[in-house]
Design the sequence.
C-alpha cells in the first residue's frame, strides 16, 4: 500500500565499488607518501571518503527525495574532482609522469581496472606500485568513477522527470486511495 519505493542498493553499483577502492588506495597512498603533519593526508582521505559516502547517502535519500539524491551524487563527483587535482599536483610538483590517454601504461592500466580481477587484486597491487604508478592508478579510477557518476546523474534526472518527486508520488497515492475508497473520504469530511 505504501507509495515510497525502497531504494538504496548502492553497494551493487560498480561506481560505488570503484570509489571504495579509490578510498582504500588513497588512504594507503597518503599515509605512505606524505609525512605528518601534512594536511594533504587528511584532505585527500576526506575527498576520497566523500566520493564514496555521498553515493551511499544519496542512494538512501532517494526514498524520500530525488532532489537530494541528485545533489549528493553530484557532491560525490565534485569530491573526486578535488582528489584528482591532488594526485595531479603530487605528480607535477615532484616531476613525476602523469600518464595521459596516449600513454601505453595508461591504456594497459585502464583496461586492467575494468577487469574482474582488479577488484580482487588491488590490495596486493597497491603494495607493489611506486608513488608514480599508484597516483596514476588512482587518476585512472577517478576518471572512470567520474564518468559513471555523470551517467548516474543523467539516469537520476530521467527518473525524476518520469516519476516526479516524493510529493507528487504522495499526491498520486492519495488521489488513488480516495478513488478506491470514496465512502471513507466522506466519513473524514464530517
Sequence:
Amino acid at each position: 500500500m505504501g507509495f515510497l519505493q525502497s531504494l538504496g542498493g548502492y553497494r551493487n553499483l560498480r561506481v560505488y565499488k570503484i570509489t571504495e577502492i579509490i578510498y582504500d588506495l588513497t588512504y594507503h597512498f597518503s599515509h605512505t607518501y606524505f609525512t605528518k603533519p601534512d594536511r594533504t593526508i587528511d584532505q585527500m582521505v576526506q575527498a576520497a571518503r566523500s566520493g564514496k559516502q555521498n553515493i551511499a547517502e544519496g542512494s538512501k535519500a532517494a526514498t524520500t527525495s530525488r532532489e537530494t539524491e541528485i545533489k549528493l551524487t553530484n557532491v560525490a563527483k565534485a569530491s573526486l574532482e578535488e582528489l584528482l587535482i591532488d594526485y595531479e599536483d603530487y605528480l607535477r610538483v615532484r616531476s613525476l609522469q602523469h600518464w595521459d590517454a596516449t600513454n601505453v601504461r595508461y591504456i594497459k592500466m585502464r583496461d586492467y581496472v575494468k577487469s574482474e580481477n582488479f577488484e580482487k587484486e588491488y590490495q596486493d597491487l597497491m603494495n607493489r606500485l611506486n608513488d608514480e604508478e599508484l597516483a596514476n592508478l588512482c587518476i585512472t579510477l577517478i576518471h572512470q568513477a567520474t564518468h559513471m557518476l555523470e551517467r548516474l546523474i543523467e539516469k537520476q534526472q530521467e527518473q525524476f522527470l518520469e516519476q516526479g518527486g516524493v510529493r507528487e508520488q504522495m499526491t498520486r497515492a492519495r488521489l488513488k486511495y480516495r478513488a478506491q475508497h470514496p465512502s471513507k473520504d466522506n466519513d473524514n469530511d464530517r
Observations:
- Residues 10-173 form one domain.
- The radius of gyration is 22 Å.
- Helices lie at 14-33, 39-61, 66-93, 104-113, 116-128, 131-163, 166-180, 182-188.
- The mean pLDDT is 88.
